[in-house]
Prior knowledge:
Layout: H1 3-17, E1 26-36, E2 39-48, E3 62-65, E4 71-73, H2 83-100, H3 104-108, E5 112-116, E6 122-125
Amino acid sequence: MDIYGEFVNWLDNILENNEMPDETKAFCFNLYEESVEDCVYSVQLVACNAFDENDGDWACEEVWSSEEDIFCVELSDETEKDWKAAQGLIVKWIREYLESGKYSGILTAKPVAAGFVDGDLELVYKAE
């Protein structure tokens, strides 16, 4: 299975087995740089009860988190040790999932962003 397929399986499992709180106003994919040898970056999903397109601090208002159930991105040709390239790749996966993922309707009901926890957020999807 390719790395995108593994990401889809991880996200399907989270969305299938967890009910998002009613007060959810947006979702954020938190990205982390890891120091573990076989895990260069990790991804965590959080639901937030705030959203402000002009102020990324909304992502700190978590009402639900995948906590330690994270997706580990291993170093490969696709995921070189470059945080910008890694964020671009993960945002690409999120967009693909939002277009055709099994549980994409859960996410596309709200705005979706992604970014490293110590950096700026990238708005990936904004619900109409």
